[in-house]
Amino acid sequence: MNTNQIEALIGLSATFGILVLLILPSVLGLVRERRIDRQIREAQEARGERPAQKSSSRSTVPSTATWYAEGRRSKKLVNS
After folding, report:
1. Cβ 51 vs Cβ 41: under 8 Å
2. Cα(2)–Cα(47) distance, integer angstroms
C-alpha cells in the first residue's frame, strides 16, 4: 500500500468512527426504551391488567375534504 491508500484508509476509518459515535446514543436509547416497555408490560400482566391499546397511527384531525363536505351540508340545512 502506498501513502495515498493509507491516508484514505485512515480517513475512512475516522469517518466510520465518528458515524458510530453519533449513532450509538440513539441505538442505546432505543434498546433502553424497549427494555422498559417490556418490563412495564410484564408487570401489568403479573398484576392481571390488560396492556394499554396502541393508538391508531391515523390522524384524528378531519381532512380538508371532510371539513368542506361538513360545511356544505350545514349550508344546505340552513338554506332549506
Report:
1. yes
2. 66
CA distances from 22 to 15, 17, 25, 28, 56 (A): 11, 9, 7, 11, 31
User: What is the reported pTM?
Assistant: 0.49
Cα separation, 24 vs 18, in Å, equals: 10
Helix residue ranges per DSSP H, the chain: 3-46, 64-79
Spans of the chain, pLDDT less than 50? none
Q: How many angstroms separate the CA atoms of 75 and 68, rounded?
A: 11
